[in-house]
């Protein structure tokens, strides 16, 4: 009788493209960057802040988050078909996404976005 280890060594797993995973990772980074960008733009322009006020009780935050989620979904919807059959390296997607997330986080810090405040 075979041991479990011998059986596990004989199992062949097919290589699958990592494109769909990379698309999801990159879309997350793009969505994060969008949130930082929209936050900074809302601080820089009263007009943009007004456009982003989808709910008066919440203020411009409602529009910022909705826009960021919509950008994330669009990015994912575009990237998934482009990368689904590609052997796109997940590590590269993660590195790019981490840079985009870092830029997005910077854009949400008051010390950064207040530099662009409209007077």
Descriptive account of the structure:
With 119 residues, this protein is mainly α. The chain has one domain. The protein contains six helices and no strands. The radius of gyration is 21 Å and the shape is elongated.
Task: Give a summary of the structure in a few sentences.
By secondary structure, the protein is mainly alpha-helical.
Helical content (DSSP H or I, runs of 4+):
over 70%
Low-confidence stretches: none
Number of domains: 1
Average residue-wise pLDDT = 87
Portion in beta strands: under 5%
Question: Number of DSSP helices?
Answer: 6
What does the largest sheet look like? Answer: none
Tell me the radius of gyration: 21 Å
Number of beta-strand segments:
0
Write the layout of secondary structure elements.
Blueprint: H1 4-10, H2 19-44, H3 46-51, H4 60-83, H5 90-108, H6 110-113
Helix pairs in contact: 2-4, 2-5
Which tags fit this structure?
119 residues; mainly alpha; 6 helices; 72% helix; elongated
């Amino acid at each position: 009788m075979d041991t479990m280890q011998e059986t596990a060594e004989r199992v062949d797993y097919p290589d699958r493209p990592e494109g769909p995973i990379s698309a999801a990772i990159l879309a997350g980074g793009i969505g994060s960057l969008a949130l930082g960008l929209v936050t900074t733009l809302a601080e820089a322009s009263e007009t943009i802040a007004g456009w982003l006020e989808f709910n008066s009780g919440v203020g411009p935050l409602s529009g910022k988050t909705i826009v960021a989620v919509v950008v994330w979904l669009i990015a994912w919807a575009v990237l998934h078909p482009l990368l689904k059959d590609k052997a796109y390296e997940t590590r590269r997607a993660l590195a790019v996404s981490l840079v985009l997330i870092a830029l997005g986080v910077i854009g949400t810090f008051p010390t950064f976005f207040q530099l662009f405040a409209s007077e």
